[in-house]
Write a structure and sequence with these properties.
The chain is 57% helix and 15% strand. By secondary structure, the protein is an alpha+beta fold. α1 (3-36) runs antiparallel to α2. It is elongated and about 70 Å long.
């Protein structure tokens, strides 16, 4: 086999690995979303985040395999990162909410439909039923009917109490 055939086989292996990794990640995210009762659209947000990350890694690997000029690629990438850096600094709040959304997806024990209280110092505390969790906020329906959007980046900084509602049909006590 010559060098070109080897590069083509390695490229196909990398692309096949990407497809397998995307499938495994999708199954894992579906499992986590089902266990925690998260909505499908929330799973799609997180899945897209991982897909973009995997594709960036694959592009870097393929650039290495095909011996693309490091100087040309580095100039292009540094220009892109400079533009993205300026945009991200300008939009830090949005990025922190997206990052917090991913943390909430994997780490927090509440889901849509749960009744919670976010402890935010006296009058700023929010209590109600979670009606949606998006990339940017947790939507809470308060007892007085207000639909409150609480930012994800603040939610991971505050204590959140999951309020247990009394079960109208408690389990019967066994005589044994």
């Amino acid at each position: 086999m010559d060098g070109l055939e080897t590069k083509i086989l390695i490229t196909l292996g990398v692309i096949l690995s990407l497809i397998i990794l995307l499938g495994v990640t999708s199954r894992y995210l579906t499992k986590v979303a089902d266990e925690k009762g998260f909505s499908d659209h929330r799973k799609v947000y997180v899945s897209n985040f991982f897909t973009v990350g995997y594709i960036i890694v694959v592009v870097i690997v393929l650039i290495s395999i095909w011996d693309v000029s490091i100087q040309g690629v580095s100039l292009f990438i540094s220009s892109i990162f400079t533009l993205l850096g300026v945009a991200f600094v300008a939009q830090w709040s949005l990025l922190s909410n997206i990052t917090a959304s991913i943390l909430l997806f994997f780490a927090y024990p509440f889901k849509i439909g749960d009744h919670i209280r976010i402890q935010d110092g006296g009058e700023n505390s929010i209590e109600g039923k979670i009606i949606n969790i998006t990339l940017f906020n947790i939507r809470i329906l308060t007892e007085d009917g207000f639909d409150v959007a609480y930012p994800n980046n603040l939610a991971i900084q505050k204590p959140i109490k999951k309020i247990k509602n009394e079960d109208p049909h408690p389990p019967s006590k066994s005589l044994l």
